[in-house]
Write a structure and sequence with these properties.
Blueprint lengths: L3 H12 L5 H24 L23 H4 L2 H5 L1 H5 L13 H12 L1 H16 L9 H16 L1
Helix pairs in contact: 1-2, 2-6
C-alpha cells in the first residue's frame, strides 16, 4: 500500500491548511523511493510469453499480464509530477525510471485507461478545476462546495 504515500504528498502539498515543508519533502522522498521500487520490480520481471519479440511489453507487476496491481497506479502517475515538483511531459520526474516510464506509457495507451483519463479531464473542465499548484486548495474547496450543492 506504499503508493498511498503519494496521496499524502497531495495532502501536504496542496490541501493542508499550513505549509509544512518537512512533510512535503518527506512524502516527496517516499514517492521517489516507491517509484524506484516499482522500477526495480519491473526491470526484474520476466517475460510472460517467451515468443514475444517485445520484452518490454510483457513487464507487469504480477503474473506477466496487466492486472489491478498495475492499474491501481494510473491516477497517481497522472499527477505525479505536479505532486513532487516536476513539470510533466518531457521533463517528467518519472523519466528517470526507465522501466516505470515505459510501463506507465503502456498503461496510458490501453483504451480503457485512456477513456478514464479523458473522463477525468472532461469532469475537471466541467467543474472548472484548475490544476496549478498555487490554486489547488481553492479549486478543491470549490469542487467540494459544488458537490455539496448538488447533493443538498
Amino acid at each position: 500500500m506504499g503508493w498511498l504515500r503519494a496521496d499524502s504528498t497531495n495532502r501536504f502539498t496542496w490541501l493542508h491548511p499550513e505549509k509544512l515543508p518537512s512533510a512535503v519533502e518527506r512524502y516527496k522522498n517516499q514517492t521517489l523511493r516507491i517509484m524506484k521500487v516499482l522500477d526495480d520490480a519491473l526491470a526484474a520481471s520476466s517475460n510472460s510469453s517467451p515468443s514475444s519479440s517485445h520484452a518490454e511489453d510483457d513487464k507487469w507487476l504480477v503474473g506477466g499480464k496487466c492486472s489491478y496491481a498495475d492499474l491501481s497506479f494510473v491516477m497517481y502517475h497522472v499527477v505525479i509530477d505536479l505532486q513532487i515538483g516536476g513539470d510533466g511531459g518531457e521533463e517528467s520526474m518519472m523519466k528517470q525510471f526507465k522501466h516505470l516510464w515505459a510501463w506507465n506509457q503502456r498503461l496510458l495507451q490501453r483504451p480503457s485507461v485512456a477513456k478514464v483519463c479523458q473522463m477525468r479531464e472532461d469532469l475537471m473542465a466541467k467543474e472548472r478545476f484548475v490544476v496549478e499548484p498555487d490554486k489547488m486548495r481553492e479549486a478543491a474547496d470549490q469542487m467540494l462546495a459544488n458537490e455539496a450543492e448538488r447533493t443538498a
